[in-house]
Design brief:
Length: 51
């Protein structure tokens, strides 16, 4: 029982950096997708953008 708890704790600690890196990568990918969508939408506009 104790071995199983220690194993789960060590596994959780070792997977933490992977989880953090995955979040950063997913944020970077999302930014790239949004930039691409913005570019595509701007091409579809016929008149200049008015803010």
């Amino acid at each position: 029982m104790i071995v199983s708890l220690v194993y789960r704790a060590v596994r959780g600690l070792l997977s933490l950096p992977e989880l953090l890196l995955r979040r950063e990568a997913s944020v970077a990918a999302e930014v790239l997708v949004l930039r691409h969508e913005n570019t595509v939408l701007r091409r579809q506009l016929t008149s200049p953008v008015r803010y």
